[in-house]
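Design job #97: recover the sequence.
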């Protein structure tokens, strides 16, 4: 009909927002958070220049995995990736909700390597000490994979009960997996056997840093896996995780005894019976 606009072909009307109004949709208005940065130790280990190219990059993003690598004796420090705190916004009025404390604190992710062969690191670990704010996970994932380009990547995370579609109780013990398309296409002796770990249930959602890293790995064709442990608490959680790590060639000979002798106990999960 003449005069009727076609939303698929007609040009959109001019924006009704001006620049000042558009700034209201940015992070805390004009208070843009500073980008993350990487800080490496000196080159006494002969690591060369960025990007590093290890055979595997392990991202420790769960409490149990952080406990394992933080207390591990057989490791050498490599540096850190720092996520600076977000700038403080203007003081809110009394009716505004308080700001998330994680936005105001610096997050330092330690980098270490477990072994080295002829100046090339074969296993690099990034330990994430606490949850990364959702809006900053993409920047952290981009910096990580721009600075370290592994042959394959392993993410150790935990099941997020608010995003899980299914039923789990505190007495259940499970490890779920996710893989990029490049990883699923891998065949032969180089493929680590994880067939007894079920895939993450259909309909469940992964968010935060694991989702950002997996997405970037998928786009760039990097072989990547993520293991999601349940529950990520209790004294047996690190032991179950070690049994999974022993399946990988880069960590099968790693001695985790120093970590397992340190008591581990996260917040109780006695009432975690989740289902949708």
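Job complete. Output follows.
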């Amino acid at each position: 009909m003449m005069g009727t606009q076609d939303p698929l072909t007609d040009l959109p009307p001019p924006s009704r927002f001006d620049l000042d109004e558009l700034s209201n949709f940015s992070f805390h208005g004009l208070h843009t958070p500073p980008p993350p940065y990487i800080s490496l130790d000196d080159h006494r280990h002969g690591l060369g220049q960025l990007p590093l190219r290890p055979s595997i990059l392990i991202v420790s993003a769960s409490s149990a995995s952080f406990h394992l690598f933080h207390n591990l004796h057989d490791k050498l420090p490599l540096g850190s990736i720092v996520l600076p705190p977000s700038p403080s916004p203007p003081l809110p009025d009394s009716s505004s909700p308080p700001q998330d404390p994680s936005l105001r604190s610096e997050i330092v992710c330690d980098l270490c390597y477990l072994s080295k062969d002829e100046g090339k690191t074969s296993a690099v670990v990034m330990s994430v000490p606490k949850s990364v704010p959702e809006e900053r996970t993409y920047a952290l994932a981009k910096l990580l994979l721009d600075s370290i380009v592994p042959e394959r990547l392993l993410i150790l995370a935990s099941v997020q009960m608010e995003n899980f579609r299914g039923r789990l109780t505190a007495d259940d013990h499970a490890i779920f997996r996710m893989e990029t398309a490049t990883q699923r296409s891998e065949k032969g002796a180089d493929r680590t056997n994880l067939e007894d770990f079920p895939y993450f249930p259909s309909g469940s959602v992964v968010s935060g840093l694991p989702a950002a890293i997996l997405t970037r790995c998928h786009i760039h064709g990097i072989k990547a896996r993520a293991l999601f442990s349940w529950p990520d608490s209790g004294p047996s959680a690190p032991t179950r995780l070690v049994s999974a790590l022993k399946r990988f060639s880069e960590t099968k000979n790693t001695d985790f005894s120093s970590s397992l002798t340190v008591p581990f106990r996260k917040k109780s999960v006695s009432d975690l019976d989740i289902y949708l």
